[in-house]
Every structure is written in C-alpha cells, then in structure tokens.
Amino acid sequence: MVLSEKPGNGGARPGGRTARVRTSVLEAAGDALAERGMDGLDLADVARRAGVGRTTVYRRWGSVPALVADLLQDMAEQSQPRAETGSLIEDLTANAHLVRETLAHPRQGPLFKAIIAAATCDERTARALHRFYEVRVREWAPCVERAVERDELPEGTDAHEVVRAVSAPLYYRLLASGGALDEETAERSARAAVAAARAGVYVR
Question: What is the pTM (predicted TM-score) of this model?
Fold first, then answer.
C-alpha cells in the first residue's frame, strides 16, 4: 500500500499564517515522535520546537491524540500519488518501493512505529491510523481495478485487499521480524501480491 507514506507532493497546502502554523506544528510533532515515541510527545515541547506559543497549540489541538490524528491526516493528504503505468506489476512495485522507502527512512520509520504502538492502546490514535491507511489504499486501488478491466486479474478481485497485500510483508519486517527492508524485499512483496491476485486469492 500508502502510504508514503512519507510526505510528498500529493496535495498543495493552503497558504496563510494559520496554515504555516499548522505545518510547523505538525513537522515538530513528527520530529518529536520519531525521536521519543508517543510517551515523549508533549504539546509544550512541540510548541517550542515549532516556534509558536503553547496556547496556540493547546487551543487548536488540545491533546496529544488530537495532534497525532491531524498529523496522520496531513501525511495522507501530502503523500505521493499512485503510479499508473498500464502494468499491474509495475504499479504495485512502485507502491512497494514507496512503502519500503518510507519505513526504512530514519525519521518516518520510527514515527510509524511510535504511532502504531500507540494505536494498540489508544482508540483515537487507532481510528486516525485506520483513516490514514484507508486514504492510501483508496489512492492505489484503481491500479488493481484497471488490471481487472484489462483482464490481467479475475473479475471480482478485491482491489483494496491486493493493495494491502503488497505492504503487509514490509510492515511485518518493520514491526516483528526485524528483517531487511531492501529493494529486493519490496519487489518480492509486489510479485507475491500480483501472483496471488492472478490466482484468484482476492476474488470476493
């Protein structure tokens, strides 16, 4: 899947002071999460890092879960758009490389680890994380839908499940096995998802 998941050029941020403050605060929050994890995320510290008044941060976000939810929304909106090459394997390989690059990134990898860990015990963070991935999966699902239209995949293939299958092995390595997050692993994840989809595994 999407994310980037790391910030990209998927959408243009609106201008104005309010938007600049939000951008600065969310960047500071992401830095703090990557460095210290969820337990070390403090609104006053985020305000200091962002160079804004703490009352601004408390008034607009009010709590750490609310700030993290906004951070995830912004990341989903700014993530890089899907590739559409006319080839399912090339599209999903591009997706896998994007996910791998994000999870292996020295800032984004720890950031995602912190958010995922927090989501296991905080319902608001969990909902925000689920929304983030829903946005990214929807962004890439048309690549699979086009493949069905081209008769590359069986009719009734669940496009969302195919996209999820691409990134699942990469997240497993990040969170569980500690295996290498290299380009070969990303390409193998894409090939495995495509092979399973062609075999009808994801037909509803």
Answer: 0.84
